[in-house]
Amino acid sequence: MTGYRKPLQGTFVAMLMCIAAVSHGADWPQFLGPQRNGVSSETGLIDAFPAAGPKELWRIAGGVGMSACAIEGELGCTLIQDEKHQILLAFHPETGAILWRCPLAPAYTNSMGDGPRATPTISNGTIFAYTGEGILAAVQATDGQLLWTQHPVRSHKGKPAEYGMACSPLVVKEQVIVTIGAPEATVASYDVKTGALNWKSGAGHSCGYSSPALLVVSETAQVVVFSGDAVLGIDPQEGSVQWEHAYVTDYNCNIAVPQSIHGDIFVSAGENHGSTLLAVSPAGQVTARWESQGMKSVLRNEWQTSVLLGGFLYGFDNVGSAGPVTHLTCIDAATGDVRWQQKRFGKGNLIAADGKLWISTMDGELVLVAARPDQFTELSRAQVIQTTRQSPVIASGRLYLRDNAEIVCFDIRKP
User: Fold this and answer.
1) Is residue 4 in some structural domain?
2) Which is the most buried residue in 27, 186, 195, 337, by most CB within 10 A?
3) Boundaries of domain holding 257
4) What is the spatial distance between Cα 115 and Cα 130, in angstroms, rounded to a whole number?
5) What is the tens place of the pLDDT at every residue in 337-368?
């Protein structure tokens, strides 16, 4: 697999800086945080929960859906669903007061769970949201006014993914990018102000359920897309495919977000598939630095993204074909060697902040684990919400989590 790739020019560096500057360290404006890697820069957070559990600041009614929250300044939002509509819901992060509601599309139903899947993205006064059937919407952050909508899947003659469109929009300067999986367009970019199509890219790939990320790949800034059957590196300005690597998974269930590790790309998938660290040469040639595939893989992320801390990846290893057995695992990112594994920990999501893993389980527990490669150490555990697949969010010393009925906020700052 080859392709010409431009060097890391000032324009590309500026794009990465733009992503980093979308918010201050205290914000979490998109899926998996400011850098879309599940890591917060916040410090001064509690090391264990009080006996009664984490301090709850507020709890409000929400709705059905798998979307996480996005937080920027005095604005929080998420996608929910009532009996009639998929709704972009805005709330005040400190008080939980509802600011506005913007219906985006009819209610979405699916055998794998109803409601929208993707997390909205807040950028420069606009919120971008992607519904279950694949409607991309831009909404004014101040008052919830709908600015524009596009239907990328339909307009490019594709069809929604079997389990719903799950890509969280990626904003790169003046464009918003989503995966669509249409026959002649795996990915599409739209102007943030007008909704006009900038470019479409890739052909012949299913969309999968992952979200694109702007990463440095072999000293080049690229939009990296984990489609249902491949990993692609795309020029963010022109939309041209710079390289691609086949990564076929049963049911097109590539869901985790790709991560950059010193210019290499880490991808992982469930369905007994596995994980690999890919090296991409300046000429676009792709080789595996290490790979661990099949039923004995070291790390099989089903619908969770692992986090990288100090050269080690922490994540969920899901056994079998969407089976109930899941191990919490730490591996050496450079080699794929397992450092520790907590057997049958259970399904959930995790993010990292202040040297700790903040984990939400499907059973509605919040678990605090020390982010240490030498051993597994659970610090605290508390039942805080009902069954959930949404990931937790940390912003300004507060942790946000939701299920299919409520949104809850906890104070996690040290006294």
Assistant:
1) no
2) 186
3) 10-411
4) 11
5) 999 999 999 999 999 999 999 999 999 999 99
